[in-house]
Amino acid sequence: MKRKKVFILIIIIAAALSGVYLNRAYAHIYSRFDLLKQPTVIAMTVEKKAENIKYVALGDSLTYGTGADNTSQSWPAIVAGKMSSNQTSVELMNFAVPGALSQDVIDHQLAESVKVQPDLVTLLIGINDLHNFVSLDNYSKNLTLILSELKNKTKAKIVLINLPYLGTDSLLLPPYNLYFNYKTDNFNKVLNEVAKEFGIIPIDIHSTKSMFGADKALYASDDFHPSAKGYGVWANLIYDAIR
Q: Is the pTM of this model over 0.90?
């Protein structure tokens, strides 16, 4: 009987320690975000040329440029710069908001996007849905609504970007590295299914996972958001896919 009590006590202590570890490891992820300053806003002035492309970027902090020093280092700004030429000007309207969910795109970004009647729209959304436990079903419905509105109410070329796996080994401690990798894969499966319904082939930035894992300089100081260098990697990939 005494040995049984000791065994039960050991199990209780082990469970308690595991609970503390899981709680602190999870809190560790988000405690780093608050220390990261938002990039300085750089107003982009565009001299309109013979061909002027209205480009709208929708999304969250990953599109806004959080992690870079200024917004001109965000991937949409880099892509807009690459698209510009002697004959073509690109008017970038980055409506992305740090922390946005797919529902926030519907509530706060979509109507303004339709209003300006863009020629090009990029959409990268879902990371905050994933981390805020939005169901796959709700994410699918929101993504479908966003793409439907853009397709039916604008003549824009719609570019959908899949979700990257983000977080260094020092940020996403086990088992959260496996957990968020699993969730990212599941969200991307849903994204691919919705994209197929609209005849869209998503641009794959998830494929840069190994590159980010090998080069910590691609991450900002919070070990989650990309740095300016990291956004440059995405920008090159996205630009090559849409040009």
A: yes
- The per-residue pLDDT for range 182-216, each reduced to its tens digit, is 999 999 999 999 999 999 999 999 999 999 999 99
Q: Report the Cα–Cα distance between both ends of the chain, in Å, rounded.
A: 74
Domains of the chain (ranges; CATH) run 35-242 (3.40.50.1110)
Residue carrying structure tokens 């560790």: 28
User: Measured between alpha carbons, how far is 225 from 44 in angstroms, rounded to an integer?
Assistant: 23
Q: How does pLDDT run across 54-92, given as a tens digit for each residue?
A: 999 999 999 999 999 999 999 999 999 999 998 999 999
